[in-house]
Design goal:
Order of helices and strands: HEEEHEEEHEEHEEEH
Number of domains: 2
Shape: globular
Radius of gyration: 18 Å
Largest sheet: 6 strands, antiparallel
Oligomer: single chain
Structural class: alpha+beta
CATH superfamily of the largest domain: Probable tRNA modification gtpase trme, domain 1
Strand content: 25-35%
Strand order of the largest sheet: 1-2-8-11-10-9
CATH architecture of the largest domain: 2-Layer Sandwich
CATH topology of the largest domain: Gyrase A, domain 2
Number of helices: 5
Number of strands: 11
Distance between the termini: 31 Å
Helix content: 25-40%
Length: about 210
Amino acid sequence: MSESVDGAKALEAVGAAQAAQAGPLSALPGARFEGYCTVEEAGLCGMVTLRADLSLAKVARAVKAVTGAEMPARLKITSGGKGRAAWMSPDELLLFVDYAEAGAAVARLERALATSHALAVDVSDARAVFRLSGPRAREVLMKLTPADIRRMAPGEFRRSRLAQVPAAFCMADENGFEIIAFRSVAGYVFDLLSNAAKPGGEVGWPPAK
């Protein structure tokens, strides 16, 4: 099946979801591909970009108040009772919260950091999130990104590329990844992942035990 056909199926799923549901929609609601790994759109997710001096104690307190998570170390993602915090760069975090709470999270961060040089922005509707799962999930991503996926461990986060577009990856467990990309390229990313996960495309990594 060609990538264009896969993309058309994803768009059909979007149309069906739009007809059945009112209110906010994720980029490709219901999009799913079953290959030697499973690719699926994860649905609506609240995301807040925070730019600030990450060494400040009050920034760590603000992040914990919004997500319940500790300040992540470089290339890490931490989890709390209300969300997660991912390290994006020396002065940037990506915070994950419930979709309905993203606006409130921004307001809370702005209040807590009003006297600091900081910026919090709700980017929920500008991003798409996908899940990639299966015993060879690493292999699928390794086909598409220059990031060293082979050495990633659960709880790690990378900011890199998928083929021609920016993307970020979180390793949820040994057999699963979460992929974040711009909403405007959601169809392209879905097709990339689906094509890389097609049966018959296995390259044998990790080696069978």
